[in-house]
Specification:
This protein is an alpha/beta fold. The chain has 14 helices and 13 strands. It has a seven-stranded parallel beta sheet, sandwiched between helices. The chain has a six-stranded parallel beta sheet with strand order 10-9-8-11-12-13, sandwiched between helices. Helix 5 links the parallel strand 5 and strand 6. The longest helix has 20 residues.
Length: 366
């Protein structure tokens, strides 16, 4: 196997799912024997985390026209000096800087990764600047092909989840004062309008009216949707049944306290949170948008419902809430898919990434 020299670029200064994917990918590829470095903005949280993990991080400013020209020159120098085989860019801003620098440096393979499912404005950073593109789901891949990116130049590489050690006993029910026989529907997602928190409340409310032991727990923060959701729960008089826990760092502990997981998202590139829930042995309910259908097995590890269909969501919830045996069966199937088949493991991500890099390098050389 050929050991590659790879550099990733990212313009974002915050740390979310995209940056988490980059961190996991670099760590997994390093474990396979490849050399990895990164190009980030000076105040980027990703730069800090990568440095702490022992990676070399080159820091360049990427904002504004002056920094654009400086950035292109800096990246060209980094790539020439480091003799990198691959540059992998991740956002539009770093692509228009780093990919141009890589073109000038003569880097053998320039890859752009598309993490999002929303509409692409300009295709320039997918067709003209990089040589190839990776996507986080087949849904995103198909969209780019429909927009004009050649099918043979796009590959899907699923984002991985790092499996936490099993949780012996969740502290969730003690924290909320819930009994062991209470039924907890859990949702973990940043509080954003497109995540469908209100849709989930509307689907749960009629079920709560006839099931006194039913509770809904939201984990995640984000203004102003957090405050709006709080107000809506108060308006419905369901403060004792719907619990908003805000941002938490102990998600595996909380997942272990749920009976089932539901997220009525309206837009999703992939939806790895469904995978995390299945890893915890939970049956899942998801909406058939974006790449969600690729994250679960409908009828086997969970239930897929059409988006914007309140009755279908209520029916799916009722089915799992009222059938403990079905919850156990689907939960076990999900756990097996994630742990035993390792479909979404960092090792699988690294194997797939390595394979597409080597294939594309060979094509480029040929």
């Amino acid at each position: 196997m050929r050991n590659l020299r790879i550099v990733h670029s990212e313009a974002a200064t915050s740390f979310g799912g995209q940056e988490g994917r980059i961190f996991k990918e670099m760590t997994a590829m390093r474990a396979r024997g490849h050399h990895l470095e990164a190009i980030c903005q000076p105040k980027a949280l990703l730069a800090e985390r990568l440095s702490d993990a022992g990676f070399t991080v080159h820091k360049i400013e990427m904002d504004g026209p002056v920094n654009y020209l400086k950035g292109v020159a800096a990246v060209r120098g980094i790539l020439k000096e480091g003799r990198f085989d691959v540059l992998n860019t991740h956002s539009r801003r770093d692509t228009v800087i780093a990919a141009v620098g890589a073109r000038l440096a003569g880097t053998a393979l320039i890859v752009r990764t598309r993490h999002l499912s929303n509409k692409v404005g300009s295709l320039w950073s997918y067709t003209c600047l990089p040589h190839r593109v990776t996507t986080v789901s087949d849904h995103v891949r198909k969209y780019l092909i429909e927009r004009g990116v050649p099918a043979n130049k796009v590959a899907t590489v699923y984002s991985p989840i790092v499996l936490p050690p099993p949780v012996e006993h969740s502290a969730l029910r003690d924290e909320l004062g819930l009994a062991e026989d209470d039924i907890v529907v859990g949702c973990v997602a940043v509080m954003r309008a497109t995540k469908g928190h209100k849709d989930l409340i509307d689907a749960m409310a009629p079920l709560m009216a006839s099931r006194p032991k039913l509770h809904l727990v939201f984990v995640g923060g984000g203004s102003p949707v957090f405050e709006q959701t709080q107000d809506y729960v108060a308006e419905l008089g369901l403060q004792d049944r719907i619990h908003l826990m805000g941002m938490r760092r102990d998600v595996p502990n909380l997942l272990a306290g749920f009976d089932l997981f539901a997220l009525a998202t309206q837009q999703e590139a992939s939806g790895t949170v469904y995978v995390e829930a299945q890893a915890s042995g939970l049956p899942v309910i998801g909406t058939d948008v974006g790449g969600v259908s690729e994250m679960l097995r409908d009828g086997d590890t969970g239930i897929l419902v059409p988006p914007k269909n309140p009755q279908a969501l209520t029916d799916a919830l009722a089915r799992l809430i009222d059938d403990p045996a079905l919850r156990r069966r689907m939960g076990e199937a999900g756990r097996k898919m994630v742990w035993e088949e390792a479909v979404f493991s960092p090792a699988r991500l690294a194997e797939t990434t390595e394979a597409v890099y080597l294939k594309w390098l060979a094509e480029r050389a040929g």
